[in-house]
Amino acid sequence: MKRSESLDALRGLAILLMVYSGSIAFGEALPGWMFHAQVPPPKHIFNPDLPGITWVDLVFPFFLFSMGAAIPLAAQKRIQAKEPKRQVFFHILKRFLLLAFFALFTMHARAWVMSATPSVTEYLFSIGCFVLLFLIYGSFKGIMAARVEMALKAGGWILAVAFLVFFPFKGTGFSVYSVDIIIMVLANMALFGMLIWWFTKEKPLWRIAVLPFVMAVFLASTEKDSLNMHFFNWSPFPWLYKFYYLKYLFIILPSTLAGEWLLERKSTEMDDKNGKLWDLSAVLVIVLILLVNLAGLYMRLLVSNLICTVALSAGLLTLLKRSFRNSLVGLDKFVNSGLYLLMLGLCFEAYQGGIKKDFSTYSYYFVCTGLAFLTLTAMMILEDRGYFKSVMAFFASNGKNPMIAYTAGNLLLIPLFKMTGVSVWLDSLMGNAAEGLLRGIIFTMIVSLVTVFFVKRRIFWKT
């Protein structure tokens, strides 16, 4: 099965924006819409009462969406090979545990977690941990013999466990509760998303029917001594699983539909020159829908945002009838789903104090998932038409190795920059908006170069 370049590009865009949002200058240099809406400058103190979203708040749900859409694509080979269910479930559990360990290990591998005042020793340990991750998660097919690869993996696991057990971490030392929460959420979504998809792969409506039950548990969990409250709070291993994480099923499960539709799509010849104008117009309308909602929801121009979104949606549906039917096959499902979820999210906007990432609201899930559907649609048009090939290839390359892109900054670049003094220069780029943006661009581009370096050599981290 050929990889979906547009889905890889969406994943790559999300991971690079995630890196960028964490590496720009914090403080007074940049406006509030350059950060999470609930963590505004200059002090960046979390305020859960602030409604609205920014582009930063779209990054994580876009990554979740690409993860969910990849579930049917990744499972296709197993289905075609008619693997026994026992083997499939073992693979799902294995992936969950590998991601959970990744969340645990990468957090402890950060120099500032090892020590309150990191020195060269801690920085070298961080870099060493980055190398260990290659041994544990690296795929070296075609590069070395299988036996050698297995031996390296075993050695990597032994050294990683020894590091966690024997290194004198600051404070109380090693703790299973010290985890990268983003990766732990992804681990839970990989487990429950894949299980639910597997049991409903023939009946997608049943998959979506799971969501009202999840919503029911959340809504009634505040009722004292209720079954919902006990079910919501129960966990055999609170550091590993919380029902609270399952709120992101509202993004993961709809996105699996996108993956199934990607499988259904057939390659088409792009000879329709007249359709190109309509296709580019559709991309432009999608970009406008994205920008209008970000601006309208952040600035709380709710009525104007709703009117503009309805008008732009009508325009996109008109383009859908004129263009996609003849030139781009199978995109109507993506557009219809995206617009439906976006409008549903806007209807939920007033609930829970307005749309927020933290603490996340139903409006947030539906709006972000709708926008993700539309963004993927735009990327599919660009891929099918062959526009911006180099840009699409750049994002897709990063999307093929997201685990490296996610960790390279904390475990490789920051330690190197600290030891060489480069961090002093980077930290000086905070005087104004231009410097603050440049700081993020430099850091993100280096992370990207590291990621693409290994992609070109076909070295991937996999779970």
UniProtKB/TrEMBL annotation:
<feature type="transmembrane region" description="Helical">
    <location>
        <begin position="275"/>
        <end position="295"/>
    </location>
</feature>
<keyword id="KW-1133">Transmembrane helix</keyword>
<feature type="transmembrane region" description="Helical">
    <location>
        <begin position="175"/>
        <end position="198"/>
    </location>
</feature>
<keyword id="KW-0472">Membrane</keyword>
<feature type="transmembrane region" description="Helical">
    <location>
        <begin position="331"/>
        <end position="351"/>
    </location>
</feature>
<dbReference type="InterPro" id="IPR032176">
    <property type="entry name" value="DUF5009"/>
</dbReference>
<feature type="transmembrane region" description="Helical">
    <location>
        <begin position="205"/>
        <end position="223"/>
    </location>
</feature>
<protein>
    <submittedName>
        <fullName>Uncharacterized protein DUF5009</fullName>
    </submittedName>
</protein>
<feature type="transmembrane region" description="Helical">
    <location>
        <begin position="53"/>
        <end position="75"/>
    </location>
</feature>
<feature type="transmembrane region" description="Helical">
    <location>
        <begin position="96"/>
        <end position="114"/>
    </location>
</feature>
<keyword id="KW-0812">Transmembrane</keyword>
<feature type="transmembrane region" description="Helical">
    <location>
        <begin position="12"/>
        <end position="33"/>
    </location>
</feature>
<feature type="transmembrane region" description="Helical">
    <location>
        <begin position="437"/>
        <end position="455"/>
    </location>
</feature>
<feature type="transmembrane region" description="Helical">
    <location>
        <begin position="403"/>
        <end position="425"/>
    </location>
</feature>
<feature type="transmembrane region" description="Helical">
    <location>
        <begin position="120"/>
        <end position="138"/>
    </location>
</feature>
<feature type="transmembrane region" description="Helical">
    <location>
        <begin position="243"/>
        <end position="263"/>
    </location>
</feature>
<feature type="transmembrane region" description="Helical">
    <location>
        <begin position="301"/>
        <end position="319"/>
    </location>
</feature>
<dbReference type="Pfam" id="PF16401">
    <property type="entry name" value="DUF5009"/>
</dbReference>
<feature type="transmembrane region" description="Helical">
    <location>
        <begin position="363"/>
        <end position="382"/>
    </location>
</feature>
<feature type="domain" description="DUF5009">
    <location>
        <begin position="3"/>
        <end position="262"/>
    </location>
</feature>
<feature type="transmembrane region" description="Helical">
    <location>
        <begin position="150"/>
        <end position="169"/>
    </location>
</feature>
